Amino acid sequence: MTAVEIAVQDLAGVRTALEEGADRIELCIALDLGGLTPSIGLVEAAVAAAAEARVTDFVHVLVRPRGGGFVYDEGELAVIERDIRAVFSAGADGVVVGAAHADGTLDETAIARFGEASDGMTVTVHRVIDAAPDTVEALRPLGGLGVTRVLSSGGAADCRAGAPVLERMRTAGAGAVQIMAGGGVRVDDIALLVAAGVDAVHLSARGRTDRGGASGPGGGAAGFDVTDRALVRAAVDAARAAQG
């Protein structure tokens, strides 16, 4: 069964994903920056919403302290570990993490540290893997580091272009590490990705609203992203249809 994961940035998005049948969420903020760590208050609210809906293994939290690349100094690594522990205490089901060296190879030592800090939560490695020199080779050691799944476009600009590599990653993972397709995923792409054998598809299903009023001088752009209910429903329906 190919799961559907929706990246959401607020409690309304959490509830939309629950109501429309998504299998899980990646909870974050600032998707325009590629996603950053959400507040603990939002994590707690998401966990409570999932519990109320009696849905398990639903809240997976992105832990990323800043925008830009994934080469972190020791202070940043320590913050990530602290955030992972805080997310665990808030009741999340999993974390989404990653770190790299300057040459693009995965920082396996850091990823192992994140796994230890997760204290049994599911660990997903995010699209840092797509910056690696060889995406398939980068995947191979992750199962031994306690990683459950990776989020990847197959090293391509989007999953459509990366589908052949995603299929190779699925073979290389040999069931030890799940492959979740993410990066420019459209509803029309889901059948192709299911056929490539991925374990899950990931999309943000974003719309835009002007609700909330003007931000005022120096306050930034008006409006904000929202989770589009129709897109979530269409993605879930497409994944189910592609699997017969």
Overall description:
The chain has 244 residues and is α/β, with parallel strands linked by helices. It has a single domain, classed as Alpha-Beta Barrel (TIM Barrel). The protein is 36% helix and 18% strand. It is built from 8 helices and 10 strands. The strands form 2 sheets. Strands 1-2-3-4-5-6-7-8 form an 8-stranded parallel β-barrel, surrounded by 6 helices. Helix 1 links the parallel strand 1 and strand 2. The longest helix has 16 residues. The chain is globular. The N and C termini lie close together (10 Å).
The spatial strand order of the largest sheet comes to 1-2-3-4-5-6-7-8
CATH fold name: TIM Barrel
Average per-residue pLDDT, rounded, comes to 95
Distance between the termini: 10 Å
- Cα-atom Rg, whole angstroms? 17 Å
Helix content: 25-40%
The SS-based structural class is alpha/beta
Structural domain tally: 1
Number of strands: 10
- CATH class equals Alpha Beta
Strand count, sense and closure of the main sheet? 8 strands, parallel, barrel
What is the CATH H-level superfamily? Copper homeostasis (CutC) domain
Pattern of helices and strands: EHEHEHEHEHEHEHEEEH
Pick out the low-confidence regions. Answer: none
CATH architecture: Alpha-Beta Barrel
Strand content: 15-25%
Structural shape: globular
Number of helices: 8
